[in-house]
Amino acid sequence: MPANSASWRRGLAAVAALPLLALAATACGYGSSAKDDTSDKTNVAAKGKKLSADTVKIGYFGNLTHGTALVGNQKGFFQKELKGTQAKYQIFNAGPSEIEALNGGSIDIGWIGPSPSINGFTKSQGKSLRIIGGSASGGVKLVVNPKKIKSLDDVKGKKIATPQLGNTQDVAFLNWIAEKGWKVDANSGKGDVSVVRTDNKITPDAYKSGSIDGAWVPEPTASKLVAEGGKVLLDESDLWPGKKFVITNIIVSQKFLKEHPDVVEAVLRGSVKTNAWINANPDEAKAAANKQLAADSGKALPTDVLDPAWKSIRFTDDPLASTLDTEAAHAVKAGLLEKPDLKGIYDLAPLNKVLEDEGKSAVADAGLGVKYPRQAIP
Predict the structure, then answer these.
(1) Which residues contact residue 131 at a Cβ distance below 8 angstroms, ignoring those fewer than 6 apart?
(2) Are 35 and 66 in contact (CB under 8 A)?
(3) Which end of the chain is more exposed for a tag (fewer CB within 10 A), N or C?
C-alpha cells in the first residue's frame, strides 16, 4: 500500500482520541476530529410483537445531515415499525468510531458518511458492512471571509479549513482545487492553497481569529460561519449533476443483516416513512430534529444557524451510489486512497422491497451491489 494511502487511513482513524464536540458547534463529522458519545438513548417504548431480535442498536451523528435518524428517533417512526423490538440509540461525532462500534457489535445499523463507509468496507476486504440505503444529499458549502475573498479565484493563496485529512469534505475541496489547475500536496495541505485541517468544533473560532480565511464544511458549521459574518462562496451541490451527492447513507453489519433481515427491513421502512414526513412537513421536521439534538446534547441550535442549514439539505431514500463511486475516485486522484474495489458495498434489495411496498420507485446501486440469486435476498 502506498504511504499516502496509509496516511489517509491514519487520518481517518486518529479521531477516536480527541475531545467530544459540542453539538451546536459540530459540523458533519465524517471522519471529523471528535470522540463519540456512545451513551444509550432510548425514547419510545417498544409495543407489539417482537421481531427476530430483542433490540436493534442504531448509531448516528448529532448533525443535521443525519436528520433522518434525528427525526425518526424523535417522532418514533423507527420504533413503530420495530414493534416489540426495542430501538436503542448511540450518538457519534466521528466516522471511524462508528465503524469501530459496528465492527465490534456495539451498534447494528448506522447513519454515516461516504468516506468512512468506503474505508470500513475496504479495510475489512468487503466483509464488515453493507450500505443499505440513502439518507441525505447536500449541506456542504465553501464559506469565506468576504473582506479577503471576493471571488473563487481569490481562494488561491488563502488558508481554507476542512474537517480532517481525507474526510469527505477534504477530498471534495482537494478535487475542486485540482480542477482549478492549482497544486496542493494532499497530505501536508501546502501549495497554491493552504488546506488547514481543523476540528469542526474550533473552526468558527479559527475564522473569528483570522487564522483561516474560510472553510469547506458541512452543516451546521457552514451556517455558524455565516452567522459570524462569513459569505457562502460556493455550494458543493452546484458541482454535481442534478445538484445531488451523497452526504449521509445507512450502513449495517453483514452479520446483523444475515441474522435479522426482518429488523433491518423495519428500520428501513421507518427511514422511508421518516423521509416522506420530513419532505412533506419541513418546518415541523426541522423542529423535531432540533428537539432531538437538544435531547442528545443538552443544547439546541439557534434559529440563525438552524434555518439556513436545514434548508440546504435534501433528504432522500436514494443512496446516490454513482456519486459515492465518484467521491472514491476523487480520493484516488488526490493521492489519498489506493484504488478501492467497491463491488458489493451496496445491498439495496431490502430497501427496494420497502420502496415497492410503499408504491415508490426502486433505487440503483451503480453496479456496486452484492450479487446473489433473488430467492436468497434477505
Answers:
(1) 117, 249, 250, 251, 319, 321, 324, 345, 346, 347
(2) no
(3) N
| Among the listed residues 320, 319, 373, 369, the one whose alpha carbon sits nearest the alpha carbon of residue 344 | 369
- How is the chain split among helix, strand and coil, in percent rounded to 5? 45, 20, 35
Torsion sign (Cα): 327, 124, 249, 313: negative
- Burial code of 162-193, b = ≥16 C-beta within 10 A, e = fewer? bbbbbbbbbbbbbbbbeeeeeebebbebebeb
Which residues does 176 contact at the CB level (< 8 Å), separation at least 6?
Answer: 216, 234, 239
Measured over the CA atoms of residue 335, residue 144, residue 33 and residue 38, the dihedral's sign is: negative
Please answer whether residues 3 and 68 qualify as being in contact, where contact means their C-beta atoms are separated by less than 8 angstroms. no
- Model pLDDT for residues 200-227, shown as the tens digit of each residue: 889 999 999 999 999 999 999 999 999 9
Query: Residue 353 above 60 pLDDT?
Result: yes
Q: What are the tens digits of pLDDT across the range 66-81?
A: 999 999 999 999 999 9
Question: Angle at which helices 114-123 and 168-179 pack, to 10 degrees?
Answer: 110
The DSSP symbol for 20 reads P
Residues 264 and 109 sit within 8 Å (Cβ to Cβ): yes
- What is the tally of helices (H) and strands (E) in the chain? 14, 12
Q: What separation, in Å, do the N-terminal and C-terminal C-alpha atoms of the chain show?
A: 35
Tell me how long the chain is. Answer: 378
The pairs formed by 367-371 with CB atoms below 8 angstroms and a separation of 24 or more are 367/343, 368/321, 368/324, 368/325, 368/342, 368/343, 368/344, 369/321, 369/344, 370/130, 370/344, 370/346, 371/344
Residue 336 near residue 176, CB atoms below 8 Å: no
